Amino acid sequence: MKDKVAIVCGSSKGMGKAIAEEFVMRGAKVTICARNEEELMETLRFLTFKAVNELHDKGAPERIIAVPADVRDYSSMKRLVEETVDAFGTVHVLVNNAGGPPAGYFEDFTDEDWYNAIDLSFMSAVRMIRLVSPYMKKQKWGRIINMTSMSVKQPLDNLILSNSIRLAVVGLAKTLAGQWAKYGITINNIAPGPIKTERIEELSRAKAERENIDYETALREWIEQVPMGRFGKPEEVAKLAAFLASEDAAFITGTTIQIDGGAVKFVL
């Protein structure tokens, strides 16, 4: 990935941060973004320090930029892409990553809740792809990676919003993969299972409150679904993202790859 230019959305923490770190350590030029500017700047300092000290890369500060941005806001995303192109000249890799919609059942949500979830989990990907695709088409090379969830392959009981809306991202990716292969652009989805992040903690707290159980019990119930008997690590997801962003994955497009320790039970 040396000198490839990547935008990693939602990269101040969790899987997004791990993916940005992996890209930086592989020599990419990386734009990180998040809504929380304080957390974002802390991540920028961490990535720069790590690259300088572990890669002995004195040019690392020029290879990593941070742009506060909200993936639900078009003008914010437009600025994100413009600042990336101003700094690095183009975009080679896009990682669409945003926090998931709230947990709950069908009866829990209003029309407004559904529209908010669509904006967060689907339209954010649509808009970011629209913004970066002209650069990818022009250079005849691009990698688009959408972070989804194991729920696109095996619905989760209390995640009606995620189960429904994330599937739209899969349909979008599959369609564009066929249409844009001629430009050298690949589009794939990563479907994480139980990965130890703030999202799992959030869902576990919601489950504990809803079912009147303690938080630790709610956490253990996630692991009980996983044959490997543990949570996945954000760094493991990052390795998969780096592979899909590389030259080695040039013949892989339109796929959805789960990384879940065997939690998904389907065959195909």
Distinctive features:
single chain, 268 residues, alpha/beta, Rossmann fold, 2 domains, seven-stranded parallel beta sheet, 9 helices, 50% helix, globular
The CATH topology of the largest domain: Rossmann fold
Order of helices and strands: EHEHHEHEHEHEHHHE
Q: What's the number of structural domains?
A: 2
The average pLDDT score comes to 92
Spatial order of the strands forming the largest sheet? 3-2-1-4-5-6-7
Low-confidence stretches: none
- Determine the strand fraction and express it as a percent band: 5-15%
Helical segment count:
9
Proportion in helices:
40-55%
Helix-strand blueprint:
Blueprint: E1 5-8, H1 14-25, E2 29-34, H2 37-54, H3 60-63, E3 64-68, H4 74-88, E4 93-96, H5 111-139, E5 142-147, H6 160-180, E6 185-192, H7 198-211, H8 215-224, H9 234-244, E7 256-259
Parallel strand pairs: 1-2, 1-4, 2-3, 4-5, 5-6, 6-7
Helix pairs in contact: 1-2, 1-9, 4-5, 5-6, 7-8
Summarize the structure.
The protein has helices spanning 14-25, 37-54, 60-63, 74-88, 111-139, 160-180, 198-211, 215-224, 234-244; strands at 5-8, 29-34, 64-68, 93-96, 142-147, 185-192, 256-259.
How would you sum up this structure, described in words?
By secondary structure, the protein is an alpha/beta fold. The protein has 2 domains: 5-193 and 232-259, NAD(P)-binding Rossmann-like Domain (Rossmann fold, 3-Layer(aba) Sandwich); 195-231, no CATH class. The chain is built from 9 helices and 7 strands. Strands 3-2-1-4-5-6-7 form a 7-stranded parallel beta sheet, with helices on both faces. β5 (142-147), α6 (160-180) and β6 form a beta-alpha-beta unit. α1 (14-25) runs parallel beside α2 (37-54) and α1 (14-25) packs across α9. The mean pLDDT is 92.
